[in-house]
Amino acid sequence: MRGAARTAMLLVLLLASVTVYSQIRTESPNGFWPTDGYGEAIEINGDVLRIYEITALSCISAGENLHKTGVGAANEIVFSENDDTVRLSAGISPDTRWFHDDGSVSNVLLRRTYSLPKPCRQPPVDTPIMNYRVFWETFEENYPFFALRKMNWLAVDKQFRPQVTQSTKPEELFGILSNMIEPLHDAHTNVRAKSIKRQFEGYRPTDDPRQKKNVARIGEIIETKYIKGGLRDYCNKQLQFGMLANSIGYLRVHSFARYSSDSEFVKQLDALESALDDIFKNSNRLTGLVIDVRINPGGSDVFGISIASRLASQNYLAYSKVARNNIHDPNHRTAPQRIIVHVSKRPSFHGPVALLTGPDSNSGGSGIKVALSP
Predict the structure, then answer these.
(1) What's the half-sphere exposure (Cβ side, CA atoms, 13 Å) at 308?
(2) Rounded to 5 degrees, what angle do the CA atoms 335, 104, 352 make?
(3) 141 Cβ neighbours under 8 A, 6+ residues apart
(4) Which one of 131, 265, 346, 354 is CB 3.0 to 4.6 Å from 102, fit for a cystine?
């Protein structure tokens, strides 16, 4: 009888857990969902999803509304607008969800709140001083690498805040904000001022400032001195493939973006996979492969992982991804998300590979170095 009682108890517990899990999956996601890290929040109202950038001072819409377009795999709720697609899936409780943006290798944890943060109840006024304050606060709460870049952000504020007044012109404010972050030398930072058609992109200094001027020359030398029979273009000319001496393949990756004239991410990924199918369809004839990302500004890490999967002979951990998630502590991080390279079942190459990188390999262009190093 005790065995039967235990079996009945386990069955009750199992049914209870299934019921709870079902409720998690089917409960309406309406509400306000701050992200764990990233300084954003997701608002869902029926079939409409909106993304906000949030600081202690501000709550600013990050773009157009996305609209529910259906239910994807594993009961994901899919929202899309133009070429942007995001997906919501069940979290670990009714008040958590996982948020995935197509084009990202990882997810973002959402936690529902039933009251709007104070900044969202009263939008900030659009003045030079407030714009400056929101800009400074955004970096103060979210940027994780001040110590690495050896920058005192409070000292930056003391230097630049007195330069901003209510009469500061947009062009002047643009210059001030750009000057604040230029010393970071971080290619993932930028200032975009649509109203005055100005843009500043952070950059990483190189030992040889002439490098960027030699892009065309580098390509010319490779094609005339080393390639046998020319290069074939793929993926909207973002990939090129040819042959070196001794049956060694040469794959040049100009970027991890713009792989199709259709900017929808799934179409770009399809373009890459089709290109790799063609490149590796006769891979048994290759004695080696050179991948060149020396001039690659980056893009989606998904593309780098896709290329790595064609070279993998076993599944392996490429890297783990974390984000800063504490506005007071730049060293506090989200739980690591493991990014796995899975062996592809499509045409592949499992021989020796050499990767060429350089000072102009940025973001995903340098991230592939990690993805290819099991």
Answers:
(1) 26
(2) 95
(3) 39, 55, 56, 327
(4) 265
Q: pTM of the entire structure?
A: 0.84
Report the SS3 class of residue 282: coil
| 290-345 pLDDT, tens digit each | 999 988 888 999 999 999 999 999 999 999 999 999 999 999 999 999 999 999 99
- The CA distance from 334 to 56, in Å, is 20
Instruction: Give the tens place of pLDDT for each residue, 131-140.
Output: 999 999 999 9
Tens digits of residue pLDDT in 101-118: 999 999 999 999 988 888
CB atoms within 10 A of CB 162: 8
Please say whether the dihedral angle defined by the alpha carbons of residues 55, 57, 61 and 67, taken in this order, is positive or negative.
Answer: positive
Find the angle CA(141)-CA(146)-CA(147) to the nearest 5 degrees. Answer: 130
β-strand pairing of 84-90 with 66-71: unpaired
Helix (H, G, I), strand (E, B) or coil at 262: coil
Query: In this structure, are residues 370 and 307 in contact, taking their beta carbons and an 8 Å threshold?
Result: no
Q: What token pair was written down for 2?
A: 């005790």
Distance (Å, rounded) from C-alpha 262 to C-alpha 271? 10
